Each structure stands twice: as structure tokens, then as C-alpha cells.
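Section 4.2 – Deliverable D4.2 (structural model, holo form)

The reporting period included a commitment to supply a predicted holo structure for the target in complex with adenosine-5'-diphosphate. Inputs used:
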Amino acid sequence: MIKFDKVVKDYPNGTHALRGVSFEIEDGEFVFLIGPSGAGKSTVEKLIWREEKATSGTVFVDGKNVNELKNKEIPFLRRKIGIVFQDYRLLPQKTVFENVAFALEIVGSDQKEIEKKVPTALSIVGLSKKADAFPSELSGGEQQRTALARAIVNAPDIIIADEPTGNLDPKNSIEIMKLLRAINNKGTTVIVTTHDKNLVDTMNKRVIEINKGVIIRDESNGGYDNEQ
Ligand code: ADP
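Output (C-alpha cells):
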């Protein structure tokens, strides 16, 4: 479970990014985090994986107050979380297989594990045939599917996708959403930030809407726009 309780985040330059945010996300939920640019969505995500620390209030991930984690404990938190970014962030000099394998190498997996887990992850995202391709040889959709394979290869409890379809056309966007939904259906918690009204409306999942650092709507089976 992820639990924010009265979380305030001020950046050192004085920006009030979050002004008292509380919500709970149960294990296995699918949640859209929406709101205009600058609303505080990325800050919520960064607090979850402890890239940032709350100014006040508490952030719990799987029962641990992440604000209180020691530096040496942070890698264990991050192992539970797979992250997908709008701009894919693949290593250009590595193949698809090697990009996905890299996520296992940095947590100390051996070759045997890599040879078992990478093909499984690539098959889930439908990229088995592209294992030896380099990112520059892939379409945007294929690059994002590679990033998704990299995010799931460690079997994380939580996937956080930051504008995962921001650079994709509608067809590839739907493809990525379907994959996220399939991953969620197997029990992984999925949190997606997006500006894509169509996708949010189609998926009919929980919507948490943030504006100016405050939650203005939290609706199960919501759409992009408030129905009221
Ligand atoms: P969103 O993801 O919804 O676009 P962010 O969480 O990135 O919003 O940003 C929320 C607010 O915090 C914005 O005003 C942004 O400019 C500010 N902000 C984000 N990161 C930093 C930072 N590292 N230093 C200072 N201000 C920041």
C-alpha cells in the first residue's frame, strides 16, 4: 500500500509543490494521476521512490515511512518500483535485450537469471523478435515497450509511469495502456500520470486529480473531466 498523509513538499527555491496531500493506494490498484503541468504529479512520484523527501507529513510505501529510510535502504525501496518515463530513457549503445538485462545486472542478478527473465519480459511486451535491435532502430512505441519490459523484469510491486504515452500516437498509446492494464491484472499496482483525456476516459479507472499541489478529485472509475 502507498499512503500519503498530509504531505507538504516545498522545494528549496520556495515553490510549494504539494500543500497537504493525503491518499491511499491499495496493492493491485490502477490509478491515473492527472492535472495540469506544474500541479505536483511528478513530485508525488518522486516522493514515492524517494528521489525527494517530504517537507512535512508522511509517505508510506509497503508499510515503511520512506522519509525515514537510511540511504543504504533506498535501493531496496527502488527494487519494488518499476519506472517508465515519457522519453523512454534507453541506453542507445545497448540492444533491447541488453537494456532490459541492465535492470537485472544493477541488482546483482546472475547470467542464468538474466537469460530466463529478459526473454519473458520481452515476450510480455511483444518484442521478442526485436531483442537484438538498438533503440535507434525502433519506433517510439517499440522503445516504450522496451522501457516497460525493463520496468517489469524485476517483478516490482509497483509500476509508476510518468506520461508514458506523451510521445506516442493514439494507436501506440492504447497498446501501452493495454500492457499496463495486463500487468495490473496480474496484481502489480500501476500509477500513471497523463494528459491524455481519451485514455483516461477509455480505461475507466481511479482518477486522482491534482491542481496547485492539492487533490481536487479522487474518484473510482472516473473520467478525465469531473462529471459534476
Ligand atoms: P507536474 O508533474 O504536475 O507537472 P511537478 O511535480 O513537476 O508538476 O511540479 C510541481 C511544482 O514544483 C511546479 O511549480 C514546479 O515548477 C516545481 N518544481 C518541481 N521540481 C522542482 C525542483 N526540483 N525545484 C524547484 N521547483 C520544482
